[in-house]
Each structure stands twice: as C-alpha cells, then as structure tokens.
Design goal:
2-enoyl-CoA Hydratase, Chain A, domain 1, four-stranded mixed β-sheet, alpha/beta, single chain, 42% helix, 10 strands, six-stranded mixed β-sheet
C-alpha cells in the first residue's frame, strides 16, 4: 500500500519512531498559532496515520514552554477576512484532529502551556491529556467576535457544563488552571514541565505495545458511549467485541501469555 506523503510545512513538525507519530506545533514566536495551510496538512497527516500500520499511537504537543497552541493566527484571519470557506458541514471542513478525520488510533496530547481557542480542538478530541503545571485552558472566541462552537461542544463533553459555559462566555477573562482542569477530569496526568514529554512518551509507548486491533476497537467502544444512549452503546460495543474474536490477535494474546513471551501482534 502506498502511503500518503506528509510534506514539510513551516510551523509544524512530523516524525514517526517506535510506532509513535509525533506532531509538534512549531511556531513558538506566534504562540504556536494555527494557519490556513495547516488544515490540509493535518488532513494529510491523519490519512497517513490511518494508512500506516507502523503507527499505533500519536503524540501532539507544542514547541516551547509558554504555549501549547493559541488557536487561529488572528493576524492572518484579519488579512484574509475569514477562517474557512464556510460552505459545508464541520465534517467537510475541519480536519485538525483524529476524531475530525474518523481515525481510530489513540492520541496523547501533551499540553505544555496555554491552550486557547482553536488549540482546544487537540485537547477535547485527545484520548489522553497530559499537562504541565504551567498549562492554562482558555477560550477567547467571543472576545474577537467569533462563535465558540466545535471545541466548546467538546469542552461540554469533558467538563461540567457550567465550567464549559464559563470558559465560552467569559472568554479570556476566565482561565482554567492546570490544577483545576486535572481536578475536573479534562487532564488525566498533571506533571512538572520537565516531566511532561517523558510522561506523554511513556503513555504513548505503553499504548503502542498493545494489540493495535484491540486498542482501536476498544477506543471506538468507549467513545461511542459519549454519543449513544447507554443500552445502545453497550450493544454497539459488544458488536466490536465479537468482531475481535475473528482477529489473529485474539488467539495470539492468550497464547503469548501462556508461553510467557512478548506477543507478536498482527498489523
């Protein structure tokens, strides 16, 4: 299978090693803000992740220690007069994250500073969020005349409704601290700045060592519970369980355990 090419793009880095794809937003002088060319670049990245059997997990972070991602580059928006064509559905126009590209490989998000506006896409759609103690979560859409929409729906799924609404409506004047985000469950692991990447790397490594098929189906089962009623989610998940019975990893896992050796997963 010929893999999708991921070309170089100013302001973002991509590499793969040890079954982990690493994406680094690399515009620290601009708060790691997002530009229009990044949208299609991310779409290509997620196609590559989906197609490449060597990739089992994705780690996303930002360069520097002050900002994870401050959202859309407002200077570019002011110059262009828009942030997108606005002609279709969100699923036809927004491609920053795995969920937005329907890619079922886990994402670990390492938040190294302020995550604001569009930067929250990566946080709310991540499977696991690790944050440094200097991280902050802010939504400033309404401060600049924009609607807090897609990311804010994600916030409402991962935070108490009142907190999501306060972030959305109070804008930049309310900053959710890393400690508070951890207490409320938006962040799964809170660490010192110097421990951020080693911790996120270890989590990604642990995921990558598991059966890729079982991980993907398990991921889909859990995410389905966010959208479906309980009984329907259970039935959907049981269908995924039964699907896995036909996969070679279902036999390899117990066999490797019984033989006291590392499993050899099918990719």
């Amino acid at each position: 299978m010929e893999l999708t090419e991921v070309g170089e793009l100013d302001g973002v880095l991509f590499g793969v090693s040890d079954h982990i794809a690493r994406i680094t937003l690399n515009r620290p002088e601009r708060g790691n803000a997002l530009t229009a060319p990044m949208m299609q670049w991310f779409r290509s990245v997620w196609h590559r992740v989906a197609e490449d059997p060597d990739i089992r997990c994705v780690l996303i972070t930002g360069a520097g220690v002050r900002h994870f991602c401050t959202g859309a580059d407002l200077n570019a928006v002011a110059e262009a007069g828009s942030v997108g064509a606005g002609l279709g559905r969100a699923t036809q126009e927004v491609f920053f994250t795995s969920r937005q590209n329907n890619v079922w490989k886990p994402t670990v998000c390492a938040v190294n500073g302020m995550a604001a506006g569009g930067g929250l896409h990566f946080v709310v759609d991540a499977d696991i969020v690790v944050a440094s103690t200097n991280a902050l979560f802010v939504d400033s859409h309404v401060n600049v005349g924009m609607v807090g929409g897609i990311e804010n729906v994600g916030l409402a799924k991962r935070l108490p409704l009142g907190t999501a609404l306060r972030m959305t409506l109070q804008g930049r004047n309310y900053r959710l601290s890393a400690e508070r985000a951890y207490a409320l469950g938006l962040v799964e692991e809170l660490v010192s700045p110097e421990a951020l990447l080693p911790t996120a790397e270890q989590i990604a490594h642990d995921i990558a060592m598991n059966s890729p098929n079982a991980v993907s189906l398990s991921q889909q089962a859990v995410w389905s519970s966010v959208e479906l009623p309980y009984t329907q989610a259970v039935e959907y998940s049981y269908g995924l369980v039964k699907t896995n019975w036909q996969h070679p990893d279902f036999i390899e896992g117990p066999r490797a355990f019984a033989e006291k050796r590392p499993p050899q997963w099918t990719t």
